[in-house]
Model the fold of this input.
Amino acid sequence: MNILLLGSGGREDALAWRLRQSPSCEALLAAPGTPGIARWAECVAADPLDADAVIALARGRAIDLVVIGPEAPLVAGVGDALRDAGFAVFGPNAAAAQLEGSKGFTKDLCRTHGIPTADYERVETVAEAWAALGRFGAPVVIKADGLAAGKGVTVAMTVAEAEAAITAAGDGPMVIEEFLEGEEASLFALVDGETAVALASAQDHKRVGEGDAGPNTGGMGAYCPAPVLTADLEARAMDEIVRPTALAMAAAGTPFSGVLYAGLMLTTDGPKLIEYNVRFGDPECEAIMPLIDGDFAQLLYAVAAGQLASIAPPRLANKHSVTVIVAARGYPGTPVSGGAIRAIEAAEQIQGVTIFHAGTATGDHGLIATGGRVLAVTAVAETFANARARAYRGVDAIDFADGFHRRDIGWRELERVS
Done:
């Protein structure tokens, strides 16, 4: 197959790395790509949000499968345009991408179909938000109703914090949500209409600081699998949350096709949905891809072609992976850009370590940082503890003076295995 991958982040670097290893992948293009992705794919200067440009590129290069990495092209309908042009696409159409594009849409769907989730109210103005806050009290969760790159959520532990978040957001669609007690985990499922199959579990770290302190980020690290999401809990989540969602979307005439990422809270009443993403998470994807067994490209094509039910279920290696994000100083605010990055090759000499590029470019004297999250240092080992130790050896081998990272990625699991 000739495959076109859209995107330019750490997630897309990991996807390109895995796709390139697939026996069915004959040629791999990436638009626009990064210096990291260029290790595995031919990078082409095309805007993933420009459907006409993407279609022209796909036609010109006889593309058999388009894999859409980030959420913005999905919500914008690039998948629709590609399908209308006759291409197989891994990723949902715009109507189904509302599961991520509108938190209010997803909450309403859950309420209608009895899917376990937190109680909530949708609001449009600050005044309505004050009224909802009066009902829920604190702690409470304030969510912007739209794409926010993983940072549009405030978990307010006091009424004062909630009031500040509402004031900062101003008038506009929001979801005011009941605070759920429990531990979070992520479940990734492949879906093609009414068929849904579990792929992998993971646990990420959203807060910028150690001990889960500070503001939310796009993610400071992750590990796969997440043993806290036991086989029984995963089965419940698939049966009570993911499959009912797939059936509801299909019944509404907007079937979902792609990967459905369910953020879960594991409560005393069982798993409840926090929110959906309609693409692989970042940095969870960097932790998941090294554990994928088999022909990954063929698996994604089966989803795109509506053939998921007729192929063998996906397999993961019986190992553990840990990803540590190295971010630029200032993130998640205004990150310092242009810092030199050295010694990546030395870090990748460590057994089991692969480094994915999340925000890099080639400068006059080598690799430089261009984003908030810069590198995703990933390690695989037979045990969680060894994978974590290898990941931090990789981080410590890199020379990036403007970078920082958390030293406690996987702390919950480390406590459990200890």
Observations:
- The chain has a mean pLDDT of 95.
- Residues 231-251 form the longest helix (21 residues).
- The CA atoms of residues 25 and 327 lie 32 Å apart.
